[in-house]
Amino acid sequence: MSPEQAPSVDLKDGFPRRIPGEAPALLARNVSKIFGTTKVLDDVTLAVMPGEVHGLLGANGSGKSTFIKTIAGLHDPEPGAELILYGQGAPLPMPAGGARRLGISFVHQHLALMPSLTVLENMLLNDLAVEQNFNIRWGKAKKQVAETFERFDIKIDPMTRVQDLAQSDRALIAICRAFEEVRLNAGAGRGILILDEPTPFLPKSGVDQLFSLVRSVVADGASVILVAHDIDEIREITDRATILRDGKLAGTVVSEQASHEDFIELIVGEKVTMFQSARTPDHSKPIAASVRKLRASPAENVSFDIREGEILGLTGLIGSGFDRVPEAIFGAQKDSDGTLEIGGQSFALNAMSPGKAMGQGVAFLPADRLGRAGIGTLSIAENMILPVMGDFRNLLGIDWGKINTHVFDMGRKYDIRPNRPYQDLKSLSGGNAQKVLMAKWLQTLPKLLMLDEPTQGVDVGARQKLFQAIDEASRKGSAVLVASTDAEQLAQICHRVLVFAKGQIVTELTGADITKDNISQETLRAHGTQTEPKQEVA
Ligand SMILES: Nc1ncnc2c1ncn2[C@@H]1O[C@H](COP(=O)(O)OP(=O)(O)OP(=O)(O)O)[C@@H](O)[C@H]1O
């Protein structure tokens, strides 16, 4: 945001005002929410000014999504809550469709897209909910969506089915739909766009694209609330930020006046020691797995070895093919080719299956946590216990008492909140669900553990615990393959990082060269100046 666009800050009452006496675009006061016996929001007040980008931060389970879903009308708040938009009282509980009519649009964590419908149908989903299909002029709608995509520089065919899109493209569609809604429904110079963790699925270029859209929306006078875990992103794009801790307001800060450490302390409530791996691969350890001539479009002719106890990062821009590698090794990717050597045997990847891979001690945690990685309608215990169910059989069948004790201990170890083994996975906050799924695989001590974006949506404090757990698994002998676009995460945990461009490994970083800046630079450089690919890395 340029200085003339940025709202000036009047700290007398904590609200930045562009015009003296200007009312907040959104003022939510005294919002509380109780689920069962747990108060997950406790008297939260948030004010967002016209033209402001306001960050909303907090540890996993601190209540951010619940707060947003309350504004959206998906949850009813406890009595006493108030919502005031541009100085006018608005209904709370919010009736169905009410927020949209009042010019508030949302991108929720689950994106609210229908995978079996086309991109075009998804762009019109809210209209489809209120209009008969034949009332929609499809030709005109297709043209409008094409124009919108052009304005947002999105290169996706509107007739593609959403189920065929990468997660990052799905996020762009949901974001684009919300931006359009605000523009069309709110009226000139108004509107509130609420983005609940839109960035974890986006590559760096997508984040830049999103931020330039955010800047253009607020330059027109609309306001944006952005929920994110990435403190650097929050400091880059927001004017102010509100931090929730255990459902309560921990503070509101002017973003450029708060340091990275200030944010961490407000989020966690204490200082946090950042995890850092030793970054020294042990070359004396035997090779745990060898991948040869792997092909899984766009990955092509990829070969590398991974040693026992090694944490190997795979990275690149989205579309460079690095994220296809774990899927292909696990037999979860159709039309892949090449071989995997593990445990003294060689497996053709075109005949690989998840069952075969697991039989060889290979575990894989995909990024899609409530799609392919976990089952939302099953409990924490059922999800966590699936790969080790056999250990809990006795003569009478499955010993659920023993399972609950084990899952509770794992919950304590990985800081899963709430630590209730019988609770459905889908009722956990995004980050806590991810901790359950990580624990599920870490407990099996696999020969080869493959993680796709393992700490997506996990807060800064819990991340350090997961990094320690990954490190512990590697010290016990697991070879760990981490596919991620998160350079900071890779720099914290990896012993070696392979950078991909156009389907090939083009750079290898080891030891002290593994820094956040180096990984980001190499990723961009590899994309722009790809020369001779490295065919084989050992
Ligand atoms: N429908 C529900 N039923 C019971 N508990 C719920 C429900 N929805 C949320 N919770 C609980 O409310 C608390 C706050 O969850 P919420 O999703 O708001 O956290 P969050 O701050 O958005 O976390 P994250 O960063 O992990 O997304 C969590 O303990 C969660 O388990």
Structure description:
This protein is α/β, with parallel strands linked by helices and 538 residues long. Strand 17 and strand 18 form a beta hairpin. Helices cover 33% and strands 24% of the residues. Helix 6 (167-185) runs parallel beside helix 7 (204-219) and helix 17 crosses helix 18. The strands form 5 sheets. The chain has a 6-stranded mixed beta sheet with strand order 6-7-8-3-9-10, with helices on both faces. Strands 16-19-20-13-21-22 form a 6-stranded mixed beta sheet, with helices on both faces. It has 18 helices and 23 strands. It is globular, with a radius of gyration of 24 Å. It folds into 3 domains: 26-268, P-loop containing nucleotide triphosphate hydrolases (Rossmann fold); 273-361 and 446-538, 3-Layer(aba) Sandwich (Rossmann fold); 376-443, no CATH class. Adenosine-5'-triphosphate binds at residues 35, 40, 58, 60-66, 417-418, 427-432, 457. One of its GO terms (molecular function) is ATP binding.
SS-based class: alpha/beta
CA-to-CA gap between the ends?
A: 45 Å
Taking Cα atoms only, what radius of gyration do you get, to the nearest Å?
A: 24 Å
Mean pLDDT value = 86
**Total helical elements:** 18
Protein name: Monosaccharide ABC transporter ATP-binding protein, CUT2 family
Keywords: ATP-binding, Nucleotide-binding, Repeat, Sugar transport, Transport
GO molecular function: ATP binding; ATP hydrolysis activity
Organism: Thalassovita litoralis
Which key phrases capture this entry?
538 residues, alpha/beta, Rossmann fold, six-stranded mixed sheet, 18 helices, globular, disordered C terminus, binds adenosine-5'-triphosphate
